[in-house]
């Protein structure tokens, strides 16, 4: 999990560098027209986070990018990244491009540069050296929080679940469709907001570890204390980018995944 401040971005590299996948890109939310104008000419946050990280890993092309939903803190740095690291395939929730003009414009530019942009719905599966099972949404949507692409994968013998900005309503839908779903590691929804990670959801999934992406001293006060209390009640180890920086697991031959490790940028 890359530290992109108040946003989301995760990178998964298959063993022996056989596949490079980026899940969301980070980006800055705009709250008014003036803020958008100011940001238009400013440098992308990816230039200080995602792009140098990808270069440090020797990534020259992203085999696929998954945008969980059409909010700027999840797709806002997409074009900046694509200009430095070409993207082969982009997956996004069906309906998001029609509902969000900014996202639609980004897709048009990516298509011009040769990226294959594909809307996707559950129960599709993205196959490859690392495969992803799409669990939600199962119908066309507008790209909001509860329309986030929710998907699972197996890495080094551990079961991961990625939830975008999924909130309580979406969590209930996932539990209803997959009542037997159990995982090892959870990417906590919506930066640890109190609108996500209900006690029922966390207890049902029963993860051993949870990953939270949030900006240091962010205006939303993410992660919320109520969410942290829920994780603590279930004795789940949780890690936060705002306090611990980048969170990563290393694949080790004949050993599988390492324990969680951290890279905190020095002041």
List the helices and strands and how they pair.
Elements: E1 10-13, E2 20-23, H1 33-40, H2 50-56, E3 62-66, H3 72-75, H4 78-84, E4 87-93, H5 96-99, H6 101-112, E5 116-120, E6 125-126, E7 132-136, E8 150-155, E9 158-162, H7 168-177, E10 185-187, H8 199-205, E11 209-212, H9 225-233, E12 237-240, H10 241-244, E13 246-248, E14 251-252, E15 256-257, E16 261-263
Parallel strand pairs: 2-3, 3-4, 4-5, 9-10, 10-11, 11-12
Antiparallel strand pairs: 1-2, 6-7, 7-8, 8-9, 13-16, 14-15
Domain Metallo-beta-lactamase: 6-216
Protein name: Metallo-beta-lactamase domain protein
Pfam families: Lactamase_B
Can you offer a commentary on this structure?
This protein is α/β, with parallel strands linked by helices. It has one domain: Metallo-beta-lactamase, Chain A (4-Layer Sandwich). It contains ten helices and 16 strands. It has helices at 33-40, 50-56, 72-75, 78-84, 96-99, 101-112, 168-177, 199-205, 225-233, 241-244; strands at residues 10-13, 20-23, 62-66, 87-93, 116-120, 125-126, 132-136, 150-155, 158-162, 185-187, 209-212, 237-240, 246-248, 251-252, 256-257, 261-263. Strand 8 (150-155) and strand 9 (158-162) form a beta hairpin.
Any descriptors?
267 residues; alpha/beta; Metallo-beta-lactamase, Chain A; seven-stranded mixed sheet; five-stranded mixed sheet; 16 strands; ComA-like_MBL; Metallo-beta-lactamase domain protein
């Amino acid at each position: 999990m890359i530290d992109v401040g108040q946003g989301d971005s995760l990178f998964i590299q298959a063993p022996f560098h056989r596949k490079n996948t980026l899940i969301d890109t980070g980006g800055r939310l705009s709250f008014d027209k003036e803020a958008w104008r100011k940001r238009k000419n400013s440098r992308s946050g990816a230039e200080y986070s995602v792009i140098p990280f990808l270069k440090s890993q020797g990534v020259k092309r992203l085999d696929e990018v998954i945008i969980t939903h059409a909010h700027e803190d999840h797709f806002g740095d997409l074009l900046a990244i694509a200009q430095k690291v070409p993207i082969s395939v982009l997956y996004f929730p069906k309906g998001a491009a029609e509902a969000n003009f900014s996202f639609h414009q980004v897709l048009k530019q990516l298509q011009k540069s040769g990226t294959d942009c594909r809307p996707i719905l559950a129960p599709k599966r993205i196959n490859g050296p690392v495969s992803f099972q799409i669990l939600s949404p199962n119908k066309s949507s507008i790209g909001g929080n509860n329309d986030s692409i929710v998907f699972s994968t197996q890495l080094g013998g551990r079961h991961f679940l990625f939830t975008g900005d999924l909130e309580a309503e979406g969590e209930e839908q996932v539990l209803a469709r997959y009542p037997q779903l159990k995982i090892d590691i959870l990417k906590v929804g919506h930066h640890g907001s109190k609108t996500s990670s209900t006690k029922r959801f966390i207890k049902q999934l029963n993860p051993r570890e949870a990953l939270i992406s949030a900006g240091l001293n962010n205006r939303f006060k993410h992660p919320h204390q109520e969410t942290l209390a829920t994780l603590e009640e279930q004795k789940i180890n949780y890690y936060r980018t705002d306090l611990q920086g980048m969170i990563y697991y290393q694949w080790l031959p004949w050993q599988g995944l390492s324990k969680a490790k951290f890279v905190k940028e020095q002041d």
